């Protein structure tokens, strides 16, 4: 009798049911989304092809480890200089042969130390050594899909280009949020000391205090378990004390540099649709039988954006 | 050049500095806590013996795995019936020889399946088969140390008996919150279907939507990395598909049943002191050089309560 704390709590990767007869139009779906409470599964089952998007191969990194591939979506709308540099670094194989050398429990994993002992002699090649800090950007011109609930860390929260984000109308600024899976550019004390070589991935409770204090460059959309379940480092701040504990990186490549036949076919739920609003509502007020008291609230970082394999034609 | 995303972000286990001359009195500390911004390290360095507490052995579980010991503090103030049952189950060795059979990425690990294949024939012994749901309790009579910031999930948040908690003054109810490390009693669809045999531990982003929907019984105060870094199960909801992937539980015992010489000497920061308020303020507004923009906010579940080995006499 495995008694589950929840029986449908997290959104699994879902193969959308293709309705055989009279699929609802998107307009009908939008109307339904507003009118009747549904479970997350019901919302996703009723989604249409237009509710999903594929990743742009020029903004997608494949991080290949011995145990599998993590997929990172880059965010040029938020950090154009860092993303451009990361593209160059990936193209020139900067991370290949380096390692994940830090796993800090309930916080981050980190990789990309150019001085790593035992690693092949590394240079940043034609990437830039110095970049501007990209902690936030002007909100003007950026489509921002607002969430309904209050947040303690930001005046507003929502999604922009598919990324969880905060916004401050008074300052006219918007920024990516440090949710689970966020990928950032490690830096020293100076705000402009990151160049995208050293990257970290959030593996714990969302460290939102870092928002607007460091440059985020994207997020892991697939394969988080390859990073989040790594043994924790026992040195200060989760650095591995023994180099043998590190996880080697076979390669980090841009999807656009990988032969098309070897690319992932993953689709990600769009965050600017009526279906997404219905998804959010299904997380704000859980409708499956397990829940006795729907919360009437959801935090930005409690919304794990669903992904799926595209349905068979 | 390991560039750290933060150089003092998480609170390490701290050995308090014993000041050689004129240590500040607790009253002086309280005054200081209000008057000047300090880093977390400065707050902990200035803490006095009265700012720390030891665990009550009768409310402490030692969970022994091949790789080490996790320490769970039970919360009889919140879930008296479940805690009493768990004490009985531990005393009678219920979990010994069972396993952790679920590791759901960014959510929970779970253990204690009485029907587990391959495990020794198990019974609940003299424990009760049926308990009342203990999702929340009356707030009257429970000391509640309020946090200053708003929370989207609860009207008020704070700490009670050292546990992160929500409170609703209108309903006169208080409940433990699902933060990282929270230990809960798995149940089926019926609210009163948990009996404390099946337990889960939160290993991901705080699933606060479960608050008031399931009975929490305590929290892991030490050794979370033994649970959080376990490989993720590849079956639905993170169940292991191959029994060989499970993590055997050597034993779960009450500290009070363990010879005194074998007990942990861990101390936990009290949550009802002026030092704790200063700690909270140091997390609301980070004062070390890394931070360019203090958040002026902290969420309940972003406050990892510091622990330490007691200073040498």
Description:
Chains A, B: InterPro entries: Cyclophilin-like_dom_sf (IPR029000), Cyclophilin-type_PPIase_dom (IPR002130), E_coli_cyclophilin_A-like (IPR044665). Chains A, B: GO terms for molecular function: isomerase activity. 2 copies of one chain form a homodimer. Chain A has 5 helices and 17 strands. Chain A has 313 residues and is an alpha+beta fold. Chain A folds into 2 domains: 70 residues, no CATH class; 206 residues, Cyclophilin-like (Cyclophilin, Beta Barrel), CATH 2.40.100. In chain A, strands 14-4-5-12-11-13-3-2-15 form a 9-stranded antiparallel β-sheet. A 5-stranded antiparallel β-sheet of chain A has the order 6-10-9-8-7, with no helix packed on it. A 3-stranded antiparallel β-sheet of chain A has the order 1-16-17, with no helix packed on it. Chain A is globular. In chain A, 50% of the residues are buried. The N terminus of chain A is likely disordered.
Explain briefly what this protein structure is:
The structure is a homodimer of 313-residue chains. Chain A has 313 residues and is α+β, with helices and mostly antiparallel strands.
